Amino acid sequence: MLGSRRYDTQVGPTLGYSNPTPEPTQYTSPANLFLEEEVYQLGSCPGVRSLPPGAERDFLTLSWGPIVYRTSYAPETKRLLPVFLRCLNDAGEESEPNHVSSDLSEDSTDIKIAILLSLFPNIKQEELLEILVSCEGSVENASALLSAKDATLCTPVNAKRVASSSSLGVQTSLSSHILATAEDGSMKPIREVTSQKKPLPPRKGKTLHLYSPEDIAAYTPCTIIHNFLPAKEANALLVELLDESKHFTRDSFQLFNRTVQSPHTHAVYVSTPEEHRQQTSEYTYGGTYRSNVRQATPQLRVVSRQVQKVVNEEINKRIRDVYPDGKKLQYQSPKEWRPNAAFVNCYDGPNESVGYHSDELTYIGPHPVIGSLSLGVAREFRVRRIVPREEEAASTEPHDNNHTTSLPDYPQKRTGPAERIEAEGQISIHLPHNSLLVMHAEMQEEWKHSISPAQNISPHPISGNRRINITYRWYRDTLHPRFTPRCKCGEHTILRCAQRNQDTRGRYMWMCYAGFAPGKEGCSFFQWAEFDDDGDPVWAKKALADDAPALTDFSASQ
Ligand SMILES: O=C(O)CCC(=O)C(=O)O
Ligand SMILES: [Fe+2]
């Protein structure tokens, strides 16, 4: 990928180190793994050279056109180096060398932030972003503002405050010190001004790479929490699940006359033996009962409590800050989110993946929230918004594995995924070890997500080439399979949301799905699904009142 790119050092972006050697070097100790990724990438990027083993990475040069920044190799810069490299890669992909712009205002935000971070390593990334936005994206102006002698934030008192607060892990907001012009012409703190500005959407046909929690929350229906668990706990969970992954299996599904296997392995985890029984004999997925259901491990249970707490906090923030009038979405549950099932996926090596899909709503209901924890090798989580179109072949859409619903990638459609990415653009969210991604309530109905095959990966010290992903889900009592409609063949139906047809978009339907399970024929059963405002099927509340609760959440079962 990087290796095929040519950069013109006169006009394009370059990056280099002191004391370079042409040969990439293999590092083996865990402490150096991050370097290994960089060395690997640097080594395959023409014009950019890597360091010999043991050499001091004490300064770094970032250059773009006539601007050259030489800076100390701060941890923040180091963290952003892959971002910078990726941006170089994208820049190379998008422009002929002579068309590479030397105008910084046209560069990606990530490059600009990487440059600002290299210049101001003590200032937090989100602060830099705010300042950058207030300067209309001009790195020069942002940099001038930040370093101006008379700027309030750079007085010795404030500089000291920044340094000491960041060493404590609590950053004093610089943006409260800087004024910017608001839309009404008045001067207001930057934070207030920038929070009114809408981010730019991904460009057509391009992949927008996002790394910072602020960008991810602004551009997608997801929030991310990096370093979610204490490091030891994350590692213990990873070790436990790697051991479990010996029992993982691939799902099979039927695509026309072919039986296809999912390109990764997985298992489902539940709390109690009774739930195990139900999951293997009552709940169906893609027309079959699951065989790979397992009892939640001790670490999975402990972590589920932490996930539950943080996911609920993130849901409340999202409602307060993003949703219209500060109210939950229609059909979103107003109750506390309590995970009672965990799907654990293992991606062994760079080629394992999951295609674009929305998660099946059958048991988690409309507008569900999902907490997704990533462990081991970092991979790219790609998302794209579903754009409505005139023709919808809703009743004939296939499945890509037994717990997810692949909606768009269907041969009968006029456009395939590549054309849609071309038309709509996609966003790539970088998911490092120990990051929790919350997929919010609008995600499954309005967006699709995937784990794309990787060109290269950086081995993780514990898992090698493997990535483990846990999606914690809340199966709703009112959607227990004993309540949901059966189709004409007597099979359980699945719940889908119409996504592309302008007229029916957002409406829910129960459909037969047996045709997508190997060896089964489906029927044409179809019924619109009706929910109350809280996302419970209109008929289920009464049924549930006469019945025992269905599933136990992880925290209650300990
Ligand atoms: O591995 C991931 O991060 C996503 C997995 C996923 O989409 C799923 O399990 O439905
Ligand atoms: Fe999914």
TrEMBL record:
Record-annotated CUE domain positions: 108-152
An annotated GO BP: DNA alkylation repair
Basic and acidic residues biased stretches: 390-402
SUPFAM superfamilies associated with the record: Clavaminate synthase-like
Entry keyword set: Metal-binding, Zinc, Zinc-finger
UniProt-recorded Gene Ontology molecular function terms: dioxygenase activity; ubiquitin binding; zinc ion binding
Domain GRF-type: 487-532
UniProt superkingdom: Eukaryota
Compositional bias segments (type: Polar residues): 16-26
Fe2OG dioxygenase domain residues: 338-476
Family annotation (InterPro entries): AlkB-like, AlkB-like_sf, ALKBH3, CUE, Oxoglu/Fe-dep_dioxygenase_dom, Znf_GRF
Mitochondrion found in the keyword field: no
Ranges where the record places region Disordered: 1-26, 390-419
Name of the protein in its database record: Fe2OG dioxygenase domain-containing protein
Protein source organism: Penicillium bovifimosum
